Q: What sequence folds into this?
């Protein structure tokens, strides 16, 4: 493999890795956000059910 071709390949791989890291961070943040909303929703439901008790 020529030096120029190798350099281009390494650059492309670096961009792919950076993009994959960005996607991983975005996915984990999204999952954390969904999880937090579910916890709040469950807590709200538990609190509301306590109000119904005589």
A:
């Amino acid at each position: 493999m020529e030096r120029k071709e190798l350099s281009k390949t390494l650059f492309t791989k670096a961009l792919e890795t950076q993009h994959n890291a960005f996607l991983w961070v975005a996915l984990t943040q999204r999952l954390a956000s969904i999880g937090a909303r579910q916890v709040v929703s469950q807590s709200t439901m538990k609190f509301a059910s306590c109000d119904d008790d005589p």
